[in-house]
Amino acid sequence: MFIQPDSTVIVCQNVPLEPTYDHTINWAGKGTEAQEAYFRSKALYTFDKQTYQRSNKNKIRIEKKADDLYLANYLCFRNTAYGTKWFYAFITAVDYVNDLVSEITYEIDVMQTWGFSFRFEECFIEREHPAQDIVGDNLVPENLELGDYVSNGINYIPELQSTYIIVATTFDNDLQDFPGGLFGGLYSGLYFHKFSNDDEGAMLATNFIQKAAAKSDGIVAVFLAPRSFAANLFEKPRELRYTTERKITGDIDGYTPKCNKLYTYPYNFLYVTNFQGNGATFPYEYFNSESCEFTLFGDMTPSPEVILMPRNYKGVEINLDERMTLNGYPQLSFNTDTFKTWLGQNAATLAISALGVATDAGMGIKRANIMNNSELPSYAKTGAIVSAATGALSMLAQVVDHSVLPNQARGSAGGSALAALNLLNYGFMNKHIRFEFAKRIDDFFNAFGYAVNKIGVPDNTNRPEWNYVKTAGCHIRASAPADVVRKICEIHDRGITYWKNPDHIGNYSFDNPAPIR
């Protein structure tokens, strides 16, 4: 039976698609009519009433000189007598047959030919453009080159920049023995005398130490302590709260990202240091509030320690596991008047000795008077008086010897450089990557979405301009031959970008935001 040739062949030019399948056109929501209209708009030549075209032969002959077809890169055909389905194909070669006929070699474009015939099933998604781009929602590591970090300056906790000079003793302000008590919730057998760490406070501390010279052995230590945590007797533990600036969501080193993942770790984060070789990273996205809040506690001991803990961080109100410690408050040197100390410590002994000397002198004189009336030799009478005088001179010599001794140094002056520089504190820095790396990474995210590494149904429609999809073990449901299904799955496992507007293919300068930001 003779069948009238009724196939249509459209030879197209400037179609922005290639057999690498890096890009394809997404006609979702527009239908096959929009698809046909677009390719017809790219027609170089249209041939009607052609013989039946076999899609699996990959060759077609048309009445056209080869030189007229060298600008063509795409092909569409439909066997109207047998159905309405269009086949779309890449032109891979044009060969001369004769002066009037050329042979075109083509490869079926499975994405355009069967794009309306398949749907995704659940599979492992490696990368895609997520529908939601809220800061902190997309945290899968990307393993990209970051370069060196830079920061926007440094902030300190103001309350830690003021300290007290603490004199720890076994006696109280009245120089009476201290039985012990609670300072900041901790029991101590020492009494802590506080003086401002300035000129006036230093003079008052010196006067107090000299005043207590007689009990200098009861001065156990002199040290610095943060004013905010230097507790009084029976005072409860003190808590200090510190709030940093709002999370950084503006520009990064002068570059404003399109993709919000750049506002998260490891591209942008809060870094805290104690200036003692320890630092910690606090990603902004783990704080539940707009700002980064911390709680500080300190103890009242001769070796003060302050701990810093993030608040409402990683779902914990006060996160003890993420704490940072600040110590190194120095023990300070001091001196005591050796003579006053000795005199004070030996006052009773000296008094008794003086009484004994006086008694001996009296007895010596009395004995001398008796001896004067006796027949004893004169040297014996004189010896009694000299013995008494010698005791007095010996006691006086002890006093003189101690009065010329230098003051005694106590305590330690080591490890105080940070204190002298007023750096016994925490430093807070916004650390981030540099401009060129921020732009490079943002361009990559903008073009190829985020690593998601999850099981799900790929979404190729949620962005206004383009969607990138890359799977591992793609799974689709299709009304198409098995070899077509296999090839479509292979294409998605390699990665492909769906474009809504074919005239924009490859142009990433257009805005392509997530619907939820």
| Structural classification | alpha+beta
Q: Strand order within the widest sheet?
A: 3-1-5-6-7-4
Rg on CA atoms, Å: 46 Å
Overall spatial form: rod-shaped
Q: How many domains would you count in the coordinates?
A: 4
Largest sheet geometry: 6 strands, antiparallel
Mean pLDDT: 87
Structure summary, number of beta strands: 30
Helix content: 10-25%
Task: Indicate the low-confidence ranges by residue numbers.
Answer: 399-409
Q: How many helices does DSSP assign?
A: 9
What portion of the residues fall into strands of 2 or more residues? 25-35%
State the end-to-end distance: 63 Å
Describe the structure.
The chain is an alpha+beta fold and 517 residues long. The protein folds into 4 domains: 1-116, no CATH class; 119-130 and 449-517, no CATH class; 147-336 and 409-446, no CATH class; 338-406. It is built from 9 helices and 30 strands. It has helices spanning 31-41, 110-113, 199-211, 338-345, 347-372, 378-403, 417-420, 435-448, 482-494; strands at 7-13, 23-25, 43-50, 59-62, 72-79, 87-96, 102-108, 118-120, 123-128, 149-151, 155-156, 163-169, 181-183, 186-188, 191-196, 219-226, 239-246, 268-273, 279-282, 291-298, 306-313, 316-318, 324-326, 334-336, 408-410, 427-433, 450-456, 466-472, 476-478, 496-499. A hairpin with a 5-residue loop joins strand 6 and strand 7 (102-108). The protein is rod-shaped and about 125 Å long.
